[in-house]
Design goal:
It is a single chain. With 219 residues, the protein is α/β, with parallel strands linked by helices. The chain has a single domain, classed as Rossmann fold. It contains seven helices and ten strands. A hairpin with a 4-residue loop joins strand 5 and strand 6. The structure holds S-adenosylmethionine (SAM). The site of S-adenosylmethionine has 19 residues, from helix 2 and strand 4.
């Protein structure tokens, strides 16, 4: 069930991963940590006005977004229930080689706990951060929880069109709270149109280094 992706360095010194099947990078080569902070934490989680947050991530991948969210929540008195869907889980012992705990200067045990948490079960990583990793394709995810924040971090639509469809976004829209926010690094016209068709109000924001724009969509 597990993959062991190779790592490559990115512009801010933090690594990204290369998917062994598709050959795609998990993050921007201009800076993995910089992109995650800019797109998902600052434009997404930091915009949430609730102290108890239910969050969905499309693509758990390296666990970097989860780690940054845990740290952000800990510093802002937030309780986060974090659901992450992933079709290609990474071998937990392999994840220790990524060095994201060093890149963001945190306890390595926290990053290890994210990867060692069992799949398909809610696990308290800290008293404020509960993780549930779901091993299945996003296309068949039932969206049976009400989400406040969504990180849509699928691979680019050119190679994964079905993961950016109006039909899928429509089912997601139904399972978001009234003030729900979706953020994604991708600002392609087809993606913005699919989000609007699904009922979202779409906002274009400056992107992380190397990307002109990103998207924030509100319910
Ligand atoms: C851009 S990377 C996500 C990076 C991740 N958020 C992180 O912080 O490292 C896209 C992720 O989607 C996963 N993926 C690809 N196809 C999928 C599918 N059909 N359903 C769920 N996950 C999928 C990949 O394995 C990869 O982990």
């Amino acid at each position: 069930m597990y993959i062991k992706p190779e790592t490559i360095a990115t512009g801010d010194g933090s690594p990204t991963l290369v998917h062994p099947i598709t050959g795609e990078c998990y993050h921007s080569v201009h800076g993995a940590v910089t992109e995650s902070r800019h797109t998902f934490i600052n434009a997404g989680l930091a915009e949430c006005r609730k102290q108890n947050v239910t969050l969905l991530e499309m693509g758990f991948g390296s666990g970097l977004n989860a780690l940054l969210s845990l740290l952000y929540g800990a510093g802002h008195d937030m309780r986060i229930v974090y659901h992450a869907v992933e079709l290609y889980p990474i071998e937990p012992s392999h994840a220790a080689l990524f060095g994201y705990d060093r890149a963001v200067d945190c306890d390595p045990a926290l990053f290890a706990a994210l990867h060692e948490a069992p799949w398909g079960e809610a696990t308290a990583i800290t008293d404020r951060f509960t993780l549930c990793k779901i091993h299945r394709p996003i296309e068949s995810y039932p969206f049976d929880t009400l989400y406040d924040i969504v990180y849509w971090d699928a691979f680019a639509p050119d190679n994964a069109e079905g993961q950016w469809s109006a039909e899928l976004f429509g089912r997601l829209h139904e399972s978001m709270s009234e003030e729900g926010i979706l953020v994604t690094y991708c600002s392609k016209g087809t993606v913005k149109r699919a989000l609007r068709q699904a009922g979202f109000t779409v906002e274009r924001l400056p992107g992380a280094p190397g990307k002109r724009h990103m998207v924030r969509a509100r319910v």
